[in-house]
Design a protein that fits this description.
Blueprint: E1 3-4, H1 8-11, H2 16-23, H3 27-42, H4 48-54, E2 55-56, H5 60-71, H6 75-87, H7 91-107, H8 110-132, H9 139-163, H10 184-188, H11 208-217, E3 224-226, E4 231-235, E5 242-249, E6 256-258, E7 262-263, E8 275-280, E9 286-291, E10 296-301, E11 308-311, E12 313-314, E13 325-330, E14 339-349, E15 352-361, E16 374-379, E17 383-389, E18 395-401, E19 412-419, E20 429-435, E21 440-450, E22 464-476, E23 502-509, E24 522-529, E25 546-559, E26 582-589, E27 593-594, E28 599-605, E29 610-615, E30 620-624, E31 639-640, E32 648-649, E33 658-661, E34 667-671, E35 677-681, E36 683-684, H12 695-713, H13 719-723, H14 730-743, H15 758-763, H16 767-779, E37 781-782, E38 786-787, H17 789-815, H18 830-857, H19 868-878, H20 882-887, H21 889-896, H22 899-913, H23 922-935, H24 943-963, H25 967-978, H26 987-994, H27 996-999, H28 1008-1011, H29 1014-1019, H30 1031-1038, E39 1041-1043, E40 1048-1051, E41 1111-1114, E42 1120-1122, H31 1133-1142, E43 1152-1155
Parallel strand pairs: 12-18
Antiparallel strand pairs: 1-2, 3-4, 4-5, 5-6, 5-7, 8-9, 9-10, 10-11, 13-16, 14-15, 14-31, 16-17, 17-18, 19-20, 20-21, 21-22, 23-24, 24-25, 25-26, 25-27, 28-29, 29-30, 32-36, 33-34, 34-35, 37-38, 39-40, 41-42, 41-43
Helix pairs in contact: 3-7, 4-5, 5-6, 6-8, 7-8, 7-9, 8-9, 12-14, 14-16, 16-17, 17-18, 17-21, 18-23, 21-24, 22-23
Organism: Leptosphaeria maculans (strain JN3 / isolate v23.1.3 / race Av1-4-5-6-7-8)
Domain Mediator complex subunit 16 C-terminal: 1010-1153
Biased composition (Low complexity): 61-81
């Protein structure tokens, strides 16, 4: 280390105390202070020889060099001494000396500068060159020093030549200024061009100190959270309200963004204390809000993501007003989080990808009743509370205390929970709690659920509250981070000059499902460490505020309960080993891990195998839990494991105090201190994935599908994935769909005989099939009704699936008591079927009209010229999917199944509306009239459509049998049909549908043109279905709203209203029927006509004055439905309950959000 002499000349006489203090001042500060003091006291800078004398090194050669330079007065000696001096300076200090010297030199008088310039200018050049070539300087310091020195030399040289004249020395003539017109690059001797990347240093984020203080004070201070189904909840800056924002796709612009703020409604008396924490349940249906006093409030989703209702809780005992919550954990929900298929990776296999998806069963602590939520939280003074749902979904609470009452002097500040989910372990919870004395406590929590053994699914009687037992199993006193720069590392104490590190995050990471990683339950503590103000090593850069990770793994072992020496007792009957041992828990500390900045938010993601860090400098970083390795794009185009590895990154942005991630962690929502909300999506760093030649793009596409598959298996929304997808070519869209079929393993082959029931599986619980169709739909949706061919096919299939479910479910309910042939549709089932049956009838007309339109387009093409390619091109050109819908197995099976229940419904409506039929009451005829109208307004007999479907069904099956295709080959054929391709094996059937079946009267059974009035069919309006692209269709949908679930026009001219079944039968109704012949007169744009008189409300004429019905809008496709809830005027309790059950999601399988009425639709 350099030895700096006491500057008697510069500082004057010093006493013993000042000398003692001076000995402990860092050498770099002594040196700089000496230069500044000399300038301050004399007005002139010290010459280089004087500066050189004050700096000595312990190296003998350096000492000799310094001594020689101090005694020499020539320019050459000064130059050489200066060069040796800078070798003993750190790079950063050398640069500061150069800046200080040049700055002081410019402020000196002209005479002093002229006298010193000749001797010192060359010394300055040698000095800077020596520093730049010093091995102790880093490449960055060397470049900075040389670059800065050049600028200073140019400025000094120009001022010297332009501002004054050098005086003539007595022993020499006036110097020639030309000799000083040297090249600055030669002066500093740069032989290479150093290209360094510009470092963007973000300014400190506003409110950082306050945020760190909040993190230090409590483990529950998350002010923004993003649910797994796509809703953002955040606490406002004033701390007294929570607002919701739904992530949705704007139908008008096709852009994904957060919706408008929707305030959460708090009950009266719950707005006294500031709110500090928000936390969504694992599936996103419930939100917990915690205030400063430790009161936890629960809000549950009510049919729309942005409508949460406060749920009252039966508390174990009154709430305290001075006991904050320090840790919270949501328990698993059965059966959704018990067993999962994990999408590990995708491996390229030629032109295809193979998916590594394996199932795993989790043993996490959970609520024992399916679909019921629960969470547990710890309060500051040791009270543990378990809040859970009863059979009727009402919330209750149980509590326990962590041993004796925790002293007020030792309260907890942070807590974290994890399931003790190892093999052969009970489904217990582990609790890690950190107190103000910097001690870490480990508890085991055993919960006994008092659920009856019979587990009746329809049981509504509440069960007894569960009991909680808590046991302290381990404790750690030494929790502070170890300073690796301290001289003594054995005691782990903080070095002198460093303030105590403060805990900001405490997490409990359970065992991961990854095989062979050897993971154990791990307690992770993140400490914020302030910079060390007393540097121990001048060669080290100055420290900044940063975080340090401290980890402990939880080890379990068996210990004998009796001493081994008892084996020596001869009178014993059993050995020591026969006594069962007890399990002991040990905390084993892992090496500390230092991070580059302060962690403001931390999230364990993807089954706790990845760790997400949000830093104070704006960096978003993902690391592997097992190795702490940063996940970066690695350029591997043959194996993909995540979006990060495939080239999707978070670009640098301004730092934010509060950050939360979307369900698939590809979009971050950032909030500043003043409450501003911004989205920060991942970006693909390799351009666009549309390019089909670059293998990196196909790997990125596979990574997107892999993440979509992972989201589907975890019941997460995948809207954020489509938000970062960007524009795709048609070829890339088809590739994405094909990969999604493979990644989700969707089989849409419905067999070639009646033994196969896959069509029933697809009709029932087939969420992956719906997710695939929804992806197909959104990829080709443009605006309100404009869809590509593939998108239109997917949307049609989704609607066919939905209406078939409604029709067959109602028929099955009626068939339970007696066969359909012997009974009629009950009045309470009529409202559910009015819109559905009308949609089915109009859809039949749409399909036949599309067939005739396509047949007319190809009528002039010779039969030998009508090839598969020509027909397929014409279908894409006209965007008419009728042929593909009839050929596709699943929609064909569904349309074939309509015949029997439709005939039953039509017979009931015809019978109960006929004037000669005796009915119990006149009101019954009025109830069935709109249903009768819906089933009889077609311009043809609907049985002709049934015959067409049955004929096509038999032809396709026969073709498959004749070709001898396997199950996988038929599955591939079905996939081709859904993406707009006509397979070669089915081309003969497709050709027949648009030729002979339409026009050939000579064939057996005739043709459709002979059986239908083609003119009436052409002018039959089906615009309201939403499958027609035209200017007129766009204008109609801008001024009308069609309920996508009830299949009715609910806003705009000609809106449909219900016949008021709750009124006439219960003494509440009014209005009269218009008759069956008035549903389709006048304006063809209406599509549906009202069955009530003018002037009645939109929901049966029972709308309350001043109360306006609202709409729900799908967050993905933008379709709407009436916001039907219990008590909505015009809807009976039975009808409202039915709709709330079948319309929890849009037909495309996505969630609802509340929306205002369209401006043009009234």
């Amino acid at each position: 280390m350099p030895n700096y002499e006491h500057p008697q000349l510069a500082f004057g006489p010093w006493d013993m105390a000042s000398s003692y203090i001076w000995a402990f001042v860092p050498v770099s500060f002594k040196y700089l202070y000496s230069i500044h003091w000399t300038v301050f006291s004399t007005g002139n800078p010290p010459p280089f020889p004087v500066v050189a004398k004050t700096w000595r090194t312990t190296d003998p050669s350096s000492t000799s060099s310094s001594s020689t330079s101090s005694s020499s007065s020539s320019s050459s000696s000064s130059s050489s001494s200066s060069s040796s001096i800078i070798h003993s300076l750190p790079g950063w200090l050398a640069w500061h000396v150069v800046q200080q010297w040049m700055g002081v030199e410019e402020q000196s008088s002209s005479q002093v500068r002229a006298r010193a310039f000749t001797d010192q200018h060359e010394a300055l050049a040698n000095w800077t060159r020596g520093a730049a070539n010093d091995e102790g300087c880093t490449r960055k310091e060397r470049s900075r020093l040389s670059r800065g020195g050049r600028q200073q030399a140019k400025r000094a040289s120009s001022k010297l030549q332009g501002s004054f004249q050098l005086p003539t020395r007595p022993d020499q003539t006036r110097p020639d200024l030309a000799r000083y017109s040297m090249d600055v690059d030669d002066l500093f001797g740069d032989s290479e061009n150093v290209n360094l990347q510009t470092i963007n240093v973000a300014p400190p984020v506003k409110g950082l100190a306050r945020r760190i203080d909040d993190l230090r004070s409590s483990g529950c201070c998350q002010r923004i959270a993003w649910s797994k189904n796509g809703c953002v909840a955040y606490i406002t800056p004033d701390g007294y309200s929570v607002k919701l924002k739904v992530f949705f796709r704007d139908p008008a612009t096709a852009k994904w963004d957060l919706g408008k703020d929707v305030p959460l409604e708090f009950p009266q008396g719950h707005d006294v204390y500031p709110l500090v924490h928000v936390s969504w349940s694992n599936l996103g249906n419930d939100l917990a809000v915690v205030d400063e006093a430790g009161r936890a409030m629960v809000f549950s989703c009510a049919m729309a993501l942005d409508r949460l209702q406060f749920v009252p809780v039966e508390l174990a005992h009154p709430e305290s007003e001075a006991d904050a919550v320090v840790g919270m954990h949501w328990l698993a929900i059965l059966p959704y989080e018990q067993k999962s298929h994990i999408a590990w990776s995708a491996v390229r296999d030629g032109a295809k990808w193979k998916w590594n998806i394996r199932s795993h069963k989790f043993h996490d602590a959970h609520h024992p009743i399916d679909s019921k939520a629960s969470f547990i939280y710890l309060k500051r003074h040791g009270e543990l509370r378990l809040r859970f749902q009863q059979n009727d979904s009402a919330w209750q609470e149980s509590s326990a205390q962590l041993g004796p009452m925790v002293s007020t002097k030792e309260p907890f500040t942070h807590a974290a929970f994890a399931s003790n989910n190892g093999k052969n372990q009970t489904k217990s919870l582990l609790l890690a709690a950190y107190d103000v004395n910097r001690r870490l406590h480990l508890y085991r929590i055993e919960t006994t659920w008092n659920i009856p053994a019979d587990k009746q699914p329809n049981r509504v009687t509440p069960f007894e509250k569960p009991t909680i037992q808590v046991v302290l199993i381990a404790m750690e006193d030494n929790t502070s981070p170890i300073d690796l720069t301290a001289a003594d590392l054995s005691n782990g104490t903080e070095p002198q000059g460093t303030a105590a590190a403060q805990l900001t995050h405490l997490n409990f990471l359970p065992i991961t499902p990854e095989h062979g990683d050897g993971s154990l339950p791990t307690i992770q503590a993140i400490f914020a460490r302030p910079p060390n103000m007393i540097a121990c090593d001048q060669m080290s850069p100055q420290e900044t505020l940063h975080s340090v990770i401290v980890k402990w793994t939880v080890l379990q072992s068996q210990q004998n309960q009796v001493h081994p020496s008892l084996d020596q007792v001869t009178s014993k009957k059993k050995g020591v080993n026969s006594v069962s041992g007890r399990t002991i828990f040990l905390l084993q500390r892992q090496p500390d891990f230092t991070l580059h900045a302060v962690v403001l938010a931390f999230y364990p993601i993807w089954y706790n195998m990845l760790l997400a860090f949000c830093y104070s400098d704006g960096t978003l970083e993902f690391r592997k839990r097992s190795t702490m390795e940063i996940i970066m794009p690695d350029g591997n185009t043959n194996t993909v494991t995540s979006l990060l590895q495939a080239g999707y990154v978070f670009s640098h942005a301004e730092p934010s105090l509060h950050v939360a991630f979307s369900p698939n962690h590809c979009i971050a929502v950032c909030m500043q201190q003043e409450g501003g909300i911004k989205l920060r999506p991942m970006e693909y760093q390799n351009g666009t994935i549309t390019d089909e030649e670059d293998p990196r793009h196909s790997a990125a596409l596979a990574a997107l599908v892999l993440q979509s598959s992972s989201a589907a298996h975890q019941y997460y929304s995948s809207d954020d994935i489509f938000a970062i997808l960007g524009p795709l070519s048609e070829k890339r869209k088809q590739d994405f769909i094909a990969l999604l079929f493979d990644g989700l393993d969707v089989n849409i082959d419905c067999g070639i005989d009646d033994m196969c029931n896959n069509h029933l599986i697809l009709l029932g619980r087939a969420p992956f099939f719906v997710k695939t169709l929804s992806a197909m739909h959104i990829l080709g949706l443009e605006g309100i009704v404009s869809r590509s061919l593939t998108s239109k096919i997917a949307w049609i299939v989704l609607n066919i699936k939905y209406v078939t479910q409604i029709l067959t479910t109602i028929a099955r309910i009626h068939n339970q008591k007696s066969p359909l042939e012997s009974n009629s549709l009950r009045p309470d089932g009529v409202p559910q079927l009015i819109g559905v049956c009308r949609w089915m009838m109009h859809f039949m007309a749409y399909i036949l009209d599309e067939l005739f339109s396509l047949g007319r387009e190809i009528e002039d093409i010779p039969p030998e010229s009508l090839t598969r390619e020509v027909l397929e091109q014409k279908i894409h050109e006209l965007n008419k999917p009728a042929v593909l819908i009839l050929l596709s197995a699943f929609p064909r099976f569904m349309m074939k199944s309509w015949a029997h229940p439709l005939a039953w419904v039509k017979r009931s409506a015809d019978t109960l509306t006929h004037s000669s039929t005796p009915v119990p009451a006149p009101e019954i005829r009025r109830i069935y009239t709109p249903l009768h109208v819906a089933l009889n307004e077609l311009p043809f007999e609907w049985r002709w459509f049934e015959m067409l479907v049955v004929e096509t069904h038999n032809l396709v099956r026969g073709t498959f049998k004749k070709a001898g295709l396997s199950d996988s080959q038929r599955n591939a054929v079905e996939r081709d049909l859904l993406v707009g391709k006509i397979p070669d094996v089915l081309f003969p059937v497709a050709k027949r549908l648009v030729t002979d079946r339409l026009w050939n009267s000579a064939q057996p059974g005739g043709c459709l043109a002979d059986k239908l009035d083609v003119g009436r069919l052409m002018f039959f309006d089906t615009t309201w279905l939403g499958f027609t692209e035209s200017k007129r269709a766009r204008l109609w949908h801008q001024s009308h709203v069609v309920d996508v679930c009830q299949k009715m026009v609910i806003r705009g001219r000609g809106k449909t209203v219900y016949p008021g079944i709750a009124g006439p039968l219960q003494g509440q109704g009014q209005g009269h029927s218009q008759g069956q012949g008035q549903s389709q007169n006048g304006d063809r744009n209406d599509g549906l006509r009202s069955v009530h008189g003018a002037g009645l409300g939109a929901v049966g004429g029972l709308e309350e004055p001043g109360k306006k019905a609202r709409l729900r809008q799908c967050v993905r496709c933008g379709e709407c439905m009436e916001d039907v809830v219990q008590g909505l005027p015009g809807y009976s309790l039975t009808h409202a309950s039915w709709l709330m059950g079948v319309a929890k999601h849009c037909n495309c399988g996505n969630s609802w959000m509340l929306a205002d009425d369209k401006k043009g639709a009234k």
